[in-house]
Design goal:
With 609 residues, the chain is of the alpha+beta class. Strands 4, 5, 11, 12, 13, 17, 18 and 21 form an 8-stranded antiparallel beta sheet that branches. The chain has a 5-stranded antiparallel beta sheet with strand order 1-33-24-28-27. The chain is globular and about 105 Å long.
């Protein structure tokens, strides 16, 4: 409170000395003395809930895949539908020769080749979908936070070899997460000669996975048999066509045979591929050299015969050189999870997803010392290559949600007692907060507008009902909530003017708040928002600022403030950040049985006596 007093005192003196216009009505004749008093008022609030049953799901920044279990708010199931796109500047050529050259040969002034069937043969097809990952390292010791025994101490020793993480990260020959880097049986602190076998190796923390990640996961990938137009035929193809979460082509029978239908084990390690050994360089083994490093991802093997017939046997056709024609020919794929032993929901980087088609072919190569103009100087050689289709174009989530509990449904229906506030991401529940409601609330607002107090800070603190959370088993709570102007579905002024940012999502808009506050046991206890500017505008400029309804949702992050459309049970806009997380929480409402936990607006101000 001392900090607030001095801040308020300094601000008041500065204002009086500089004669700011907005406080000109406070003139010296109105100040009976030069005594300043720091005090606090509270204002009651009311809360209303709305359910989210159907959303526009083709414009999301993060897509779902899998099943999320929630005893209170209902279970969520999600499938992902996407078009495929050809490579940039597609040629429709596999191997080195086009169809005409394979059939008729090559005859130019400098080059002559006989007709040659390259026999392109698909060997492997992989659907790759990267996980969202991070490599945050708060203390800069070279060990990312999730593997760091103390992420705030660069002198910690995460692998227990008596060398600090910082020491090991500064040495090219040591691995901070392996006490015996070279595997010779001698720990790094005692080893006089250590050689790190892979100095470029990366480790990652995997984000946005909810559930049992160690189980075998049953994936199903099907070919879509419906063209996904990006223009709306009902609007004469003059606007974008929207796709909604209740659209299920699989249930409508518009998918064909599975391209994959089996279980795989998730792998969270970096994927390293090596070069192919060149037989012409006998003194060098290229197969030991790293060709590519990929971040952790799901890799699903697809039906090679299907892609041989549908793609490679169509070499030279128009659909392989024009993306629009290709998407009319190959409509896309639908990816889903079959029932697993334990629910698992994943949010994956579909924007980085691809189908990688690996193939062998017979390449015509010029013999040593051969003449390119002599067709007889060429020989057939085994070669291999890869062809990539990206998961891009029209794409959307099909999301279904089971019935919420009777308690939550009562609150949504407006029959609740105000004891609790219910929030759920995805197809969930959003809450609305009204300040200064009813006659008493309006009288208080008018009084605050009439009295020339200096508003030091205004807070909304939302306390988690820990007993209820624990009883219901809701252990995975959101790391952040989002408070916004619900009248226009836009950020509050306090959000907009908050400059705080950083590499960690928790660093963004940290003054505005909404971050989960935890106790010594690591349990979430509350969320706090600072809305000082919002309240000051309402009190000092009532002609320009209305007492708008505030929206409250769970949030995945504050990187995006875009909205998406809700179409059922009623139509309204909702922040995308709420859709981008399946998590839920139950908070103490304005009428909670414990007065200390009740939601209310706290106003800290400086008065003059």
């Amino acid at each position: 409170m001392n900090l607030k007093f001095f801040c308020g005192l300094f601000a008041l003196v500065f204002i009086i000395l500089s004669c700011e216009k907005e406080f000109s009505n406070v003139g010296s004749s109105l100040l009976p003395s030069d005594t300043f008093v720091i005090d606090k008022q509270t204002a009651s609030v009311e809360v209303e809930h709305k359910s989210i049953e159907i959303i526009r799901s083709d414009n999301l920044s993060i897509f779902y895949l899998g099943e999320y279990e929630d005893q209170v708010f209902g279970n969520t199931t999600a499938r992902f539908t996407t078009q495929l796109s050809l490579p940039t500047s597609p040629t429709g050529i596999f191997g080195k020769m086009n169809v005409d050259q394979e059939t008729n040969g090559v005859s130019t002034e400098d080059t002559n080749k006989n007709p040659h069937d390259e026999q392109e043969t698909v060997t492997e097809v992989w659907l790759e979908i990267p996980f969202y990952t991070n490599q945050r390292d708060r203390d800069g010791d070279g060990v990312i936070d999730t593997f760091d025994i103390d992420p705030d101490d660069p002198d910690s020793d995460s692998d227990g070899d008596n060398l600090t993480d910082l020491e090991e990260s500064r040495s090219a020959n040591l691995d901070s997460l392996n006490p015996d880097t070279d595997g010779d049986g001698i720990n790094d602190d005692e080893d006089e000669e250590t050689i790190n076998p892979d100095t470029e190796a990366n480790v990652y923390e995997i984000d946005y996975l909810y559930g049992d990640t160690e189980q075998e996961v049953h994936f199903q990938v099907k070919k879509l048999n419906y063209f996904l137009s990006n223009l709306d035929p009902e609007d004469n193809f003059e606007s974008d066509k929207a796709y909604y979460s209740d659209k299920d082509f699989d249930q409508e029978g518009l998918t064909s045979q599975p391209l994959f239908d089996d279980k795989i084990t998730l792998d969270f390690d970096e994927i390293v591929s090596f070069k192919v050994d060149d037989p012409e360089t006998e003194d060098v083994d290229e197969s030991t050299e790293v060709d590519q490093r990929l971040s952790p991802r799901i890799r699903i093997p697809l039906d090679t015969a299907f892609f041989q017939q549908s793609i490679f046997d169509m070499e030279g056709e128009n659909m392989l050189v024009d993306n629009n024609r290709f998407q009319e020919y190959f409509n896309g794929i639908v990816i889903g999870l079959q029932s697993t032993s334990s629910p698992l929901m994943m949010q994956l980087n579909f924007s980085g997803g691809r189908i990688q088609i690996e193939y062998d072919y017979k390449e015509l190569v010029l013999t040593d010392g051969g003449d390119a103009s002599n067709a007889e100087d060429y020989e057939s050689q085994d070669s291999s290559s890869a062809y990539t289709l990206s998961l891009s174009g029209v794409r959307f989530n099909t999301i279904t949600q089971t019935q919420t509990s009777a308690e939550v449904q009562t609150a949504i229906n407006g029959s609740g007692d105000g004891q609790h506030i219910y929030l759920k991401g995805g197809l969930g529940v959003v809450s609305y907060i009204d300040l200064f409601v009813g006659d008493a609330g309006q009288d208080q607002l008018q009084t605050l507008q009439d009295i020339p107090w200096l508003i030091n800070e205004a807070n909304l603190t939302l306390y988690v009902d820990r007993q209820k959370i624990n009883d219901l088993g809701l252990n995975d709570l959101p790391s952040r909530l989002y408070l916004f102007d619900a009248s226009e579905s836009i950020p509050l002024v306090d959000f907009n003017v908050d400059p705080t940012s950083g590499p960690n999502p928790a660093d963004n808009k940290s003054t505005f708040g909404g971050l989960a506050q935890v106790d010594d046991n690591g349990e979430v206890t509350s969320y706090n928002f600072v809305i000082t500017n919002h309240l000051s505008n309402l009190l000092r400029n009532p002609d320009d600022f209305d007492n708008v309804r505030l929206g409250l949702t769970v949030s995945s992050d504050y990187f995006s403030t875009q909205n998406t459309s809700v179409t059922a049970p009623t139509a309204f806009e909702i922040p995308q950040s709420s859709i981008n997380t399946p998590l839920s929480v139950i908070l103490a409402g304005p009428n909670h049985s414990n007065p200390d936990l009740r939601l209310q607006l706290e106003i800290f101000y400086t008065a003059y006596e």
